[in-house]
């Protein structure tokens, strides 16, 4: 618990929110959704393209995870470089939001907005969608693969529980192999505790 601080946490949307507005004839639709993996983000993007098949652009930004495992991506989808995806990503970063994807759908209205106008519009897509969202507080987690003997399993289970950890999967053969999730701030406690419990009879790998 020594490494605990409020900065250890981030915010994630609880569901999907949407905003709509018009700038000089161009219609913008901003959609924010919860997403824990890149695959989910890209699937959601594909679904949105099917929902608005005649839109001119589908720019996006997403953030997944936190800390050393943070993944960030953005795309301008044909808009001038840096005018669409990056401003939306900056909104997510500035609000400490992750496990989220925001997609800005644009229907061109015949008037060019210029770099400044585009940047403001796409930033507003993320900002307005985020303002409508219900946000949950989440803590970064580390995942480990632990291999140990049956005789150490009971003591290790107690260690995992004391560290607010969860066993995501277990395989029982000649030895026990566990996939374990623990808060990132307690990852070192798990590895040190594992070494103490197993006394050289087990192996751990950070995933």
How do the strands and helices of this protein lay out in sequence?
Layout (H helix, E strand, L loop, with lengths): L9 E4 L3 E7 L2 E9 L3 H14 L5 E8 L6 E5 L9 H10 L5 E8 L6 H18 L3 E4 L2 E8 L4 H10 L3 E7 L3 E8 L3 H12 L4 E4 L1
Antiparallel strand pairs: 1-7, 2-3, 3-6, 4-5, 4-6, 8-10, 8-11, 9-10
What does it look like?
The protein is an alpha+beta fold. It has 2 domains: 8-138, Impact, N-terminal domain (Ribosomal Protein S5, domain 2, 2-Layer Sandwich); 141-206, Alpha-Beta Plaits. It has 5 helices and 11 strands. It has helices at 38-51, 85-94, 114-131, 153-162, 187-198; strands at 10-13, 17-23, 26-34, 57-64, 71-75, 100-107, 135-138, 141-148, 166-172, 176-183, 203-206. It has a 5-stranded antiparallel beta sheet, sandwiched between helices. Strands 9-10-8-11 form a 4-stranded antiparallel beta sheet, covered by helices on one side. The longest helix is centred in the middle third of the chain and has 18 residues, at 114-131. The two termini are 22 Å apart.
Largest sheet: 5 strands, antiparallel
CATH architecture of the largest domain: 2-Layer Sandwich
Strand order of the largest sheet: 2-3-6-4-5
Approximate strand percentage:
25-35%
What form results from the Cα inertia axes? elongated
* Class based on secondary structure composition and strand pairing: alpha+beta
Q: How would you state the average pLDDT, rounded?
A: 93
CATH topology of the largest domain: Ribosomal Protein S5, domain 2
Distance between the termini: 22 Å
Helix content: 25-40%
Output the radius of gyration: 22 Å
Q: Helical region count? A: 5
Element string (H = helix, E = strand): EEEHEEHEHEEHEEHE
CATH homologous superfamily placement of the largest domain:
Impact, N-terminal domain
Number of strands: 11
What is the domain tally?
2
Task: Give the C-level CATH assignment of the largest domain.
Answer: Alpha Beta
């Amino acid at each position: 618990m020594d490494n605990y601080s409020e900065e250890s946490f981030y915010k994630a949307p609880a569901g999907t929110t949407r905003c709509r507005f018009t700038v000089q004839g161009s219609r913008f639709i901003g959609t924010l959704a919860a997403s824990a993996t890149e695959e989910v983000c890209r699937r959601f993007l594909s679904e949105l393209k099917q929902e608005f098949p005649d839109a001119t652009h589908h720019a996006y930004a997403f953030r997944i995870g936190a800390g050393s495992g943070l993944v960030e991506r953005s795309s301008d989808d044909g808009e001038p470089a840096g005018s669409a995806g990056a401003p939306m990503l900056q909104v997510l970063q500035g609000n400490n939001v992750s496990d989220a994807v925001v997609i800005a759908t644009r229907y061109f209205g015949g008037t060019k907005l210029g770099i400044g106008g585009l940047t403001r519009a796409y930033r507003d897509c993320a900002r307005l969608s985020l303002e409508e969202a219900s946000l949950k507080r989440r803590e970064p987690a580390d995942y480990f693969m632990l291999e140990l003997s049956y005789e150490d399993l009971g003591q290790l289970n107690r260690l995992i529980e004391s560290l607010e950890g969860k066993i995501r999967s277990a395989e029982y053969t000649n030895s026990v192999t566990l996939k374990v999730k623990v808060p990132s701030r307690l990852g070192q406690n798990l590895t040190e505790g594992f070494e103490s419990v197993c006394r050289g009879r087990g192996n751990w790998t950070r995933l």
